[in-house]
UniProtKB/TrEMBL annotation:
Source organism: Shewanella salipaludis
Physiological role: Catalyzes the reversible cyclization of carbamoyl aspartate to dihydroorotate.
Cofactor: record remark: Binds 2 Zn(2+) ions per subunit.
EC numbers: 3.5.2.3
One GO-annotated biological process of the protein: 'de novo' pyrimidine nucleobase biosynthetic process
Binding site for substrate: H15, L16, R17, N41, H135, L218, H250, A262
Name the record gives this protein: Dihydroorotase
CDD domains xref list: DHOase (cd01294)
Phylogenetic lineage: Bacteria, Pseudomonadati, Pseudomonadota, Gammaproteobacteria, Alteromonadales
SUPFAM superfamilies linked to this entry: Metallo-dependent hydrolases
Protein residues bound to Zn(2+) 2: K98, H135, H173
The encoding gene: pyrC
């Protein structure tokens, strides 16, 4: 296949950051994504509706044409109150709240220390119809970093799902066969996003023959059998899996450092990288539902109505892109990508 036309996609998990970085992240995300679920892990985090609406306004100001719609998320803390959930829902702009276990990932220090602390909030979310998005990793330092997702699912997520059967839950950026199996056997209230980098890479790409910091993200890339399980999930065509890039820019010098930040940048070529992943398992016919149908269907939002066309033609990715005052090194920097979006779309 040399060309494929799909309904305009959305990104159900992205980091746009704030301040001087917004013009660059918004430029990339709004090239062809209709909507994006914008993660709230700013400094300070987006903890209430007023902050979410302020952030929404700044994103809107940063987009040249105004055709892109940010979908806002509240950052849950031990102190989030149930009434804030109803306020958020009533705003019409906030679609979800995010559970970051405290200390699990970038800017998660104010996250939740014990999921029991937010049980009244989860009850309110279930009642109001606000989705729960989850960074699914335990934070216990004695637990091996490669096991943190699987143990979170066993110890915490299965209990939450059992205790709130009507709550819609998205397990974000899944990285393991355990997560694929969990989501597949769960009710239709449970879904997952999968990133392009977890589909295209495994931990060998990050660690064999030299350490490559731009592949360092959380949850960390796993062994190739887990990558194969993720590819199996997208090739299955299940409606429970959809596009969430987790594109998470950090300045070049913060990644290429003795203690580098977690996060990989893919918004410069998101759908193009997903097309490669789907093609690798001969499943390009499943790309449209994954990128453009399953997300809005799960969130209860309308699907986009216009389309974009991808053509098979190599292009070279720059070594870096401008980001705020300096730059970000994207995934595939200095290498080629096999698909491109036809210009003008
Ligand atoms: N994925 C990452 O490695 N980093 C994300 C946070 C997150 O999504 O966990 C970030 O904000 O940089
Ligand atoms: Zn995360
Ligand atoms: Zn993320």
């Amino acid at each position: 296949m040399t060309s494929i036309t799909i309904t305009r996609p959305d990104d159900w998990h992205v980091h746009l950051r704030d301040g001087s970085q917004l013009k660059d992240t918004v430029r990339d995300i709004s090239r062809y994504m209709g909507r994006a679920v914008v993660m709230p892990n700013l400094v300070p985090p987006v903890m209430d509706t007023a902050a979410a609406l302020g952030y929404y306004g700044r994103i809107q100001q940063a987009q040249p044409q105004g055709q892109f719609e940010p979908l806002m998320v509240l950052y849950l803390t031990d102190n989030t109150r149930a009434e804030e959930i109803f306020k958020a829902k009533a705003s019409g702009k906030v679609v979800a709240a995010k559970l970051y276990p405290a200390g699990a990932t970038t800017n998660s220090d104010s996250g939740v220390t014990d999921v029991k602390n937010i049980y009244p909030v989860l009850a309110a979310m279930q009642e109001a119809g606000l989705l729960l998005l989850v960074h699914g990793e335990v934070t216990d330092s004695s637990i091996d970093i490669f096991d943190r997702e699987q143990i979170f699912i066993d110890k915490i997520l299965s209990q939450v799902v059992a205790d709130f059967p009507e709550l819609k839950v998205v397990l974000e950026h899944i990285t393991t066969k355990d997560a694929v199996d969990f989501v597949n056997q769960a009710s239709d209230k449970v879904a997952a996003t999968i990133t392009a980098h977890h589909l295209l890479y495994n931990r060998n790409h990050m660690l064999a023959g030299g350490i490559r910091p731009h592949f360092y993200c959380l949850p960390i890339l796993k062994r190739n059998t887990h990558q194969e399980a993720l590819l199996g999930a997208i090739a299955s065509g299940s409606k429970k899996f959809f596009l969430g890039t987790d594109s998470a820019p950090h300045y070049k010098d913060k990644k290429e450092a003795a203690c580098g930040c977690a996060g990989s940048y893919t918004a410069h070529a998101a759908i193009e990288l997903y097309a490669e992943a789907f093609e690798s398992v001969d499943a390009l016919d499943k790309l449209e539902a994954f990128a453009s149908f399953n997300g809005p269907d799960f969130y209860g939002l309308p699907r986009n109505t216009d389309s974009i066309t991808l053509v098979k033609a190599d292009w070279s990715v720059p070594e870096s892109y401008p980001l705020g005052d300096t730059c970000v090194v994207p995934i595939r920097a200095g290498e080629t990508i096999a698909w491109q979006v036809k210009s003008g779309e």
